[in-house]
Each structure stands twice: as structure tokens, then as C-alpha cells.
């Protein structure tokens, strides 16, 4: 047996057999690790397959009636196609065609589309809450029409959340209205009333899980919304929860809202809504109730925004008369055309003063000097010159409210 040679003065010996044994040992370890990984991957694949089969069976058991409801040209969708559609948040056009009839439906023709967020706005003490409770009674009683508009409901059940009135006040009003609506005991059980203003979504979800509802009335929006009503993003984020709620449970949500105090009596327009434009933007339909004149018995309902109604319907307004004894509205005779919103005109400018100011400028006078001579401030003189066009058009010179400062 040969001895290992010494190299220099390091005192280390080279073992010619160690590298071979080391390589063989490492090769065995790699083979073992590879086998273990293959076994683990096999177990994972089997677990995923079992979970997928279980989920598919569970979905098929949970939604049998929905599968049978979707049809196209009279033929029912296959089980696999229906599960694919119901499990997705995104649909192809082919999926929508397979679903069949997807027309826009109305809870009350023209006035209230189904499965939408709707706002009814108006100044205080014009009868918004009374109008809504009358609508609720018409639905739960199975009436065919509401103020001359056809009612189309599958479930004759309504929820009223009234944050402004007490239970006695609500009952007394509805008790008077029941004189015009023939309600049975079964009908009264389908009208649910609450005065809560907290945790609305959670409480509504609990009710909607128990039985279907056609309409939810929230009176009023300002009481249930606790954020900054003038911030667009916050308002839209708040309404997202109600949007998801009405989609999930196929119901319509009607908010009662107010208009700004400073905007009362200034025509009928969606910009009069109290708060951010996010309210009008998120709602699919906005109605406004207004007083036609100083008489308490006359009201007008106008559609100031409607994504699913024609322009002709928006121009037509519903003229109503109010019965004090029964606290109900009736459709009045006659037509009412929505007036144009009047624009505030600026104060007129004395053109002789403008001409005089131009002459003084051509003489080399400064704005401060012209202002002292004419009794106007520097900003007013400057604005006159900016509005003038060459050749000078003295008829189109605008006057702002800043002229009020000139009187000082």
C-alpha cells in the first residue's frame, strides 16, 4: 500500500479515496430527496383534486333552483355551464345571452326601477315620508297601480327605516292611510318598520336572509350616513355597501333626502341635492318633490335623473293633490312641464364709465388714477379692460359682484 506523499511543510496528507466515497454518498442523498419530493407533490395534487370535486358538488347542491331558472330559447342550461356562470364575478357576452331575459324592469313603472339605488329629495315638510309610506302600503296590499303607474313586484314585502319619526307617529300616519288601502292581517305582516340608525347593513342582511323583500325605504339618508356628506369619494364608498346588498338580494333601495336650505325655491334641478355630487352619481334614479305653490295640497314629482327612462319621461312631471284627512296623495288632473332653471344675471355696467376709463387709459393714466377719477377700485377697472375685445365691444362687458366693493 502506497503512502501519501508530504507536500512542503503543511503537514497535510492527501487521501485519494475520500473524494470518491463523498461523491457516492452525495449521489445517494440526492436520489432520496428526489423520491421524497415526488411523494409530497403527489399528495398535494390528490388533495387539490378532492377539494375541487367537493366544491363543485357543494355548489351544485346549493343552487339547484338557479340552474333551472337560466334558459335560452326555451332550453335549460347544462349543469356545468350554470355552475361556471354562477361561480364567476365576470361574464362573457355568451354567458349573458345564455341567461336569457335581462331587460330593465320597474318596481313601479317609470318612477322606480328594480334593483337600483334611488333618491327621493325635496325641501322639508313637503310630504316625502308620507309619499313613501303610501307607496309601501300599495305594494304590501297587492295593489295593481300606484298613482296611476303600474306596480310589478314578485315579493309583496317592504322595509321602512324611519330615523326621524317615533313608532307612534309612524303608526298614526299609516293608520290614516289604511283608509284608502284595504289591508288584510296578512298584508300588515309584510310591512316591516324600524327606527334604528346604526348598523343598518348588518341588520338588513339578517332580515333579507330570512325572506325576500321588494323595497327598502331609508328615511333619511343624512341620519344613517355619518361621514362628510360633501366629499365625493366618502359618499360613494358608503353607498357601495347598499349597492352590493341590493344586487345580492334582488331588491330596490329608496333613500329619502333633503335639498340645501339655500337652494329652496330656486327651481327643480339635481344640483339642489344636499351634499356631494357623488349621491346623484351613484343613484340610478333621482326624484324630486316640490311645492307647486303656497297651497299645501299641491305637489310635483319630477325625475331629475333617470338612467333607464326616456328624455320625454324626464320632461313630464307628476302633479299630485294631498288629502289631509287620509294623509294620502292622488294624481291630479292637468300637466306640469318642468321649468328651466333660472340663472342669476350679473349687475349691469354703465357703458359710459367704461368708455371714459378707456379714454383715460389712452391718455396714459394708471389704473389707480382711473379708479379714483371714476369712483371704482383698481380690480374693477382691470376687469373692464380684460373683457373688452378689439374692436371694442362695450355691450359684452361683464360685471361681477365685486362692484359692491366700489360703494365703500
Task: Please characterize this protein's 3D structure.
This protein has 408 residues and is of the alpha/beta class. The chain folds into 3 domains: 63-99, no CATH class; 106-337, P-loop containing nucleotide triphosphate hydrolases (Rossmann fold, 3-Layer(aba) Sandwich); 351-407, no CATH class. It has 15 helices and 16 strands. It has helices at residues 18-62, 64-69, 79-86, 93-99, 128-140, 167-177, 185-188, 200-210, 221-224, 232-249, 277-282, 311-315, 351-362, 367-374, 378-387; strands at residues 71-72, 75-76, 106-108, 112-113, 117-122, 145-146, 149-150, 158-162, 191-194, 215-219, 252-258, 285-291, 298-306, 316-323, 328-331, 336-337. Strands 5, 8, 9, 10, 11, 12, 13, 14, 15 and 16 form a 10-stranded mixed β-sheet that branches. Strands 1-2 form a two-stranded antiparallel sheet. A hairpin with a 2-residue loop joins strand 6 (145-146) and strand 7 (149-150). Helix 14 (367-374) crosses helix 15 (378-387). The longest helix has 45 residues, at 18-62. The chain is flat and about 110 Å long. The protein starts with 17 loop residues before the first helix and ends in a 21-residue tail after the last helix. Residues 60-75 and 389-408 have low confidence and may be disordered.
